[in-house]
Design brief:
There is one protein chain. The chain has 159 residues and is mainly α. The longest helix is centred in the first third of the chain and has 55 residues. It has one domain. It contains six helices and no strands.
């Protein structure tokens, strides 16, 4: 009888531990995937903005042509602007942060980063203002976002 009781308790405890383990591992995987998605989203916005800057800022466009790189044609430029604006105005990353992380600091950092991208986009014809905004409004918030995401995807943070 003792063996039966011991085996039953062991099976119940093993099942509970397994359930908790699977829950936390799945939660960690979803957090890591979201972090990767957010970084991809930000990187795509950054690359689109820089590509547009390289044709909108005369000095950069000239340097690009001198190095043998082609400029975007009008259709590609319109497509990049449309994609950048779509990425800039989408609410999806904010909703995902609220659902998965429920972290106001992370959400507000992404919001400040998005506003930095928007400000830089509006100053894209002026190289010094454009670069100043990238250095003061985009890069610091991007670095902070990465640090916050890294902290939210550590295993010890899950407990």
């Amino acid at each position: 009888m003792d063996n039966l009781l011991s085996g039953t308790i062991g099976a119940i405890l093993g099942s509970l531990i397994s359930i908790f383990y699977v829950h936390f591992i799945e939660r960690l995987k979803s957090r890591r995937q979201l972090a990767i998605d957010i970084i991809d989203h930000v990187e795509t916005m950054y690359h689109r903005l820089m590509a547009l800057g390289s044709i909108e800022i005369p000095e950069l466009a000239e340097r690009r042509q001198q190095s043998g790189l082609t400029l975007l044609n009008d259709d590609e430029r319109r497509q990049y602007v449309a994609e950048f604006l779509r990425l800039l105005t989408t609410y999806s990353p904010f909703a995902k942060i609220d659902i998965i992380f429920d972290d106001k600091e992370l959400s507000s950092t992404l919001e400040r980063l998005t506003k930095g991208f928007q400000s830089a986009f509006h100053k894209i014809k002026n190289k010094s203002e454009f670069m100043d905004l990238l250095n003061s409004e985009v890069d610091p918030h991007y670095q902070k976002l990465c640090v916050l995401l890294r902290g939210k995807t550590k295993l010890f943070h899950m407990f």
